[in-house]
TrEMBL record:
It comes from the Bacteria. Keywords: DNA-binding, Transcription, Transcription regulation. InterPro entries: Homeodomain-like_sf, HTH-type_TetR-like_transc_reg, HTH_TetR, Tet_transcr_reg_TetR-rel_C_sf. GO terms for molecular function: DNA-binding transcription factor activity; transcription cis-regulatory region binding. This is TetR/AcrR family transcriptional regulator. PROSITE patterns: HTH_TETR_2. Gene3D superfamilies: Homeodomain-like, Tetracycline Repressor, domain 2.
């Protein structure tokens, strides 16, 4: 079976198969880690041949990147939907903080994929390029919300980039602790992070 190279719109069956492979990849990375997630393991988990996997994705890097993109897009959409429904910039910042915690609480396997492939820089050569994991860029959307709040006169004067990094770092550390100690109450942690954020931004 040769890899799919044409640019035609994939059929319903092809889209379903690609999604199945992405789901298998997410599950394996989250339980075994990136290094142990081979194309052969993905094929076995999906119940198809390795050649069939290569019909849809030309390499492990391409498939795992598709899985990471899938996770990040859904994470981003979840948080953005909550931010977009916020009545003002202050509420938008707090909705962003709460949304990031809630998504990760409910999608632990997605958190593992992000940790394995992005935060720990284990996910293929393209993610090991110096500067590829730009922490400041990760939190730019939050920084933009902080700027909007300052312009609306809701927040005190501060460096939005620095405060975004501080809030983001707090979220990352809480979630990292939860991954190792799952008895941590993430809902209570979200309450504390909201209060932390209020104290950092309010006049």
């Amino acid at each position: 079976m040769t890899p799919r190279r044409d640019r035609d719109t994939p059929t319903f069956t092809e889209r379903a198969r690609r999604q199945q492979l992405i789901d298998s990849t997410i599950g394996l990375i989250s339980t075994r880690g990136y290094p142990a997630t081979s194309l052969a393991a993905i094929a076995e988990d999906a119940g198809i041949s390795k050649a069939a996997v290569l019909y849809h994705f030309s390499s492990k890097d391409e498939l795992t990147q598709a899985a990471l993109t899938y996770v990040l897009e859904r994470f981003t959409r979840f948080v953005r939907d909550r931010v977009d429904n916020a009545p003002d910039p202050r509420a938008a910042v707090l909705a962003s903080v709460r949304g990031m915690i809630e998504y990760q609480r409910d999608n632990r396997n997605h958190v593992r994929v992000i940790t394995e492939m992005l935060l720990d820089d284990k996910g293929g050569t393209q993610l090991k390029t110096p500067g590829q994991h730009d922490v400041g860029r990760r939190w730019q959307t939050l920084a933009d919300l902080l700027v909007a709040g300052q312009r609306a006169g809701q927040f005190r004067e501060f460096d939005p980039q620095v405060v975004a990094l501080a809030i983001g770092g707090a979220i990352d550390n809480v979630v990292s602790h939860w991954l190792v100690h799952p008895d941590l109450d993430l809902d209570r942690a979200a309450d504390e992070l909201e209060e932390f954020t209020r104290r950092a931004i309010d006049r």
